[in-house]
Fold these 4 entries.
Entry 1:
Amino acid sequence: MEDALARIRHQITDTTTTVLNDLDTIEDPVQRQQAARTVLEELLPDMGREIKAHRSRTVAGLKEGRTLKQVAEMIGSSIALVDQLIKSGKQNKQPTLGKGGK
């Protein structure tokens, strides 16, 4: 898991640098701030929703053959959160990032 997290951190750092560099290519400061606002208000929240949905689907997968309590103990969480994640995972089956989904 640590290797995967290190790769993810590196990818996010690289992507952030690329986004900042791309924003800097927008000469008009008004348009540049509008683009930055779009990144902050639309693109990053979309990514967050996709990652949360992925987490929910993963927890739902852990539930198969286990009780909520067992899953909660496995992931170090409360039974209520596990239940919430599982319910959310059943509603969020398909990724929408990059498809105009919110």
Entry 2:
Amino acid sequence: MTDAELIARLRDDVKVHEMTGDGGMGRVEATRLAADRLTQLSEENARLRSLMVEAKQRLSYDADIFHDQVLDQLRHEPVRSATV
């Protein structure tokens, strides 16, 4: 079950409990709070995943630049012979 499906189910449970009075207001409020908290966590998780993708792209870009710089430096340095 995805976060969105679980949130929808919790919100549906809140509506049912409010209409029927089943479980009292404590249960309704607890279910509502759980749905709200899960929504917040799901949104935060999406933001963190986005940041992680961004960081991976930046790291890859930086690695490519470093690689190009090293190759360029090697091309321009004179070859040193090893002496024994």
Entry 3:
Amino acid sequence: MIKREQYLKEIRKFMDKPVIKVFPLSFKEFIKFSKIQNLQKIYNMEEYFEQYLKFGGLPAIHNFSQDKTSIYQYLTDIYNSVLLKDVISRNNIRDIELLERVILFIFDNIGNTFSAKKISDFLKNQGRKLSTETVYNYLKALENAYIISKVQRYDIKGKSILETQEKFYLLDLGLKHSQLGYRANDIAGHLENIIYLELLRRKYNVNIGKLKTKEIDFIGQRENEKLYIQVTYLLASDDTVEREFAPLKDIKDNYPKYVLSMDNLTKFNINGIERKKIIDFLLEQ
């Protein structure tokens, strides 16, 4: 992480580096790049996906022969470049430590709804003061720098966008892992992040769905098409199956509905809701 005393030195070092303005590789593209760079090693799909989870989708990581230390150092350089050039410098941010605390909060809450006020209250509990307005400005700056992407909630019954409790996903998970290390316990949020980016690549407008007290992970809409998606790590029990399928059962339209998980199960269908393996979904189209 960047310390205040390093700021002037680091900003000169990274000022001329490029900004990430395109999506990182999809899983299908990641596999193609990996095969080109690692001709002596053929992985199965689960192994490719594990690498995709841990390292993200920036194309240049394939130049490092799966060496974790080198990959995370490269990703740290990218992180510092974007943070310094497109966030700190362009927005004249003076308290770098507070900005980084905001970023760490986002890293820790991928897949959770929260607001600028919640971040402000969190920092206050840590003995640091940052107004809700300033947090909002930080979030907007991080969006403009293509570090995070905001997803708003959509009230399915009321057919309206809700202005509170958004989610924020990362444009590349590797940036998080380069700063915190890969944390297996965060798998649920990581899987959501991957599916969210895939929907954007497929040109969907994406929202979180709200139906009374229930939440649908994603509603994807493009032209006259719509789909609903729940994302979970494993359907490990009947209770889990019921929890994941229940919100989709309550939606009274005929658009496609999916529950995506990592289980090695055959496809099955409950009340018209299709269960698919996440890897298979990513390899479609």
Entry 4:
Amino acid sequence: MSKTNLLLDAHLLRIACTTPTADSPIGVFDSGVGGLSVYRHLRQQLPYERYLYYADTKHVPYGSRTAEDINHLTLTGIDWLIAQGCKLVVVACNSASAHALNQARLRYLTIPIVGLVPALKPALAYVQAKNAQLTQASANLSNHLSSHVAVLATMATLHGQLLNDVMAQFATPYGIRVSRWYEPALVPWVERGMPPTDATAERLRKMLMQFAKQGVQAIVLGCTHYPFFKEFLLNQMVVQGHDMALFDSGDAVARRVKQLLAEQGLLIAQKNIPQKNTLAVSNHFGNRHSKPNPHQLQFFATAMTQGLSELVIKLCGEEVMVDAIDG
């Protein structure tokens, strides 16, 4: 057995003997900065919690990787978060949830692991309700209405079992058309700060025009990076004169996290917020250090790419400590 495996086994043994408390942080995992869209919902619903964010920027994006690769990278990140004493981990990455969520839950039976599924189910419900209203208003429309939802996601998510299960249960039986749409440049575009003059922005404009011609009524943003260009899409729909609803799963995930913590008595109360919020952090090789944590979010990246700190602060809308870790 290698030295790294021995050290990882030591981490897991320590974790098994550690019981999280209400003061323990919530872990958030993603391949890059996209999971910050989920963090913003968590912060809104759970404002007194502390958060540890693991960004695997060394290997971003995950969407085009093999299932085996995604599984390994995801479990490595979750191992690290739980080694820091996290009381719950959010897999804020659709690709990782599609391929590693079940393995993560089996690996940590006593720690809640919350994953993501593209918000297709509420989008389908919206389309059904909208068409029912239109049909009721004008019987002549009943034979001309078509239900159509587009899902924007990575290849890993689009072909994952989680999404296909939702389609089979809630779309196909009701004759609702679901289109899959993949654009490999979207995640890197967000990681670069979403420059509006970029070729990717132009492809998004053309995508909206194509969706309008196809009668798309709702768009599912099936990657945690995508809500960051939600405002861009809304502005373009105004310019182009289209009316399509946008859905993402951030709010639902935050509500689920709050529910799980409440059920286990692990919600932090405002009166219990530590005065000196210091967190001990370790890397994969057992070295530990402590840093003061004046903010509720600590962001750790496996690669300190150019402009990362500025991008994280921009997307969060708050001051954030950004540190490098081994990954």
